[in-house]
Amino acid sequence: MSAANDDSLAAAIRWAWTGATPATDRFAGPHASAADVLEDIASGRRRIPLADARPWADPDLEAVIEEAMNLEPAERATAGALAAFGATRA
C-alpha cells in the first residue's frame, strides 16, 4: 500500500469514528478560498482536535489515529500498523 493510501485509510478511520472531516473545519466559499482550505489541510492549522470530535474516549484508538495522521510524513504509522491495531481489537 502506498503512503497516500495509508493517509487516506487513517483519515477514513478518523472520519468514521468521529463523523467530522479530519483535515479542516471549513470549506471553500465566500469566507475561504480553495487555496486557504488546501493550506489548512497541508499545515493542519484548522484540524479539529480529536478530543473535541470523538464520540467517547479511547486512548489507544486516538493514539494510533494521531500517529497515522502526523503532519510529518516520515513519522506516520503505516496501514500495516493500523491493521495490526485493528486485529488487537477484534
What is the succession of H and E elements?
HHHHH
Q: Main sheet? A: none
Instruction: Tell me the number of strands.
Output: 0
Helix content estimate: 55-70%
How far is the N terminus from the C terminus? 22 Å
Computed Rg? 14 Å
Count, helices: 5
Q: What overall geometry do the principal axes of the alpha carbons give?
A: globular
Based on helices, strands and strand pairing, what is the structural class?
A: mainly alpha
Account of the protein in words:
57% of the residues lie in helices and 0% in strands. With 90 residues, it is an all-alpha fold. α4 runs antiparallel to α5. The mean pLDDT is 83.
Provide a quick synopsis of the model.
It contains 5 helices and no strands. It is an all-alpha fold and 90 residues long.
Notable characteristics:
90 residues; 5 helices; mainly alpha
Detail the topology: elements first, then pairings:
Layout (H helix, E strand, L loop, with lengths): L2 H16 L15 H10 L6 H4 L5 H10 L10 H11 L1
Helix pairs in contact: 4-5
